[in-house]
Amino acid sequence: MNKKLTLTIDEGTVDKAKMLAKEQGLSLSVLVESYLQKFVSTTTIESNKPKDITSTLKGSFKAPSDFDYKSTLVNELEQKYYSDEENPD
Residue 16 — pLDDT band, cuts 50, 70, 90? Predict the structure, then answer.
């Protein structure tokens, strides 16, 4: 049985989550439900801290076969720390 849930989440986070869900061919509800199921299945009742949530998320998101993680990371870090806007010539 499904139950409706209302959440308040940062707009940018919602927009990114919607894009991610669309890329995965899922609805946002299914994506959030999947994440919550993995989270609660790895959380101990005593501590309410995840045991190892990152390992449960492995394989949840598929990157394109030609995706170059290292090059993307370098580019993003360069943009963040060496942006022309922050360091004008």
Answer: very high
